[in-house]
Amino acid sequence: KAGHTPVWAQAVSGADGRYKGPSSVAVKVADRRTTKAAGVTGVVFSAKASGTSDGSVRVGVDYSDFAQLYGGNFGARLSLVELPACALTTPDVPACHQQRPLPGVSNLFTARTVSATLPLTASGSTQPLVLAATTLTPTGGGNGAPAGTVSPADLKPSGSWTAGGSSGAFTYS
């Protein structure tokens, strides 16, 4: 885990069972003003590898402290996206809001983490990778998350409800 932030990084072993990636990953979490200006509901952060080896690292966010921040199932809807580097320097510029979904994102609702394995370049890398844990779709579900969507029902004043007793079912007609 990167200090007192919700961001973490984990070594990923190759096919031979040995890790051949960067020796360290420096993580910097953007402040709330930058995150909001970049159009992100969640966390914006950068990851920069150092050392002499390039390789894959699993990078993730522990969202247990803000799983319900933007309503029910917020944490379950989180995914990881890449943002342009300018999202950190000029987040008010619309072009800096372009989100590129990352492949292979895993959102483990029961563990309250969202993560992806990323190839990081340590040797000769000048720019950090800018990432965000944010929502892509308004629906939840999957990986043990509560499923369902919330939307207004088309109810008429002339309608009536019938309860199904202890089964919990109900009918509207």
Descriptive report:
The chain is mostly beta strands and 173 residues long. Helices cover 8% and strands 35% of the residues. The protein has three helices and eleven strands; from the N terminus they run ββαββαβαββββββ. The protein has a five-stranded antiparallel beta sheet. The protein has a four-stranded antiparallel beta sheet with strand order 1-4-8-7. A two-stranded antiparallel sheet has the order 10-11. β10 and β11 form a beta hairpin. The protein is elongated. The N and C termini lie far apart (53 Å).
Describe the structure concisely for a colleague:
It is built from 3 helices and 11 strands. About 8% of the residues have low confidence. The chain is mainly beta and 173 residues long.
SSE order and pairing:
Blueprint: E1 7-11, E2 24-29, H1 32-37, E3 42-50, E4 55-62, H2 74-77, E5 78-83, H3 86-89, E6 100-101, E7 106-108, E8 113-120, E9 129-135, E10 161-163, E11 170-172
Antiparallel strand pairs: 1-4, 2-3, 3-9, 4-8, 5-6, 5-9, 7-8, 10-11
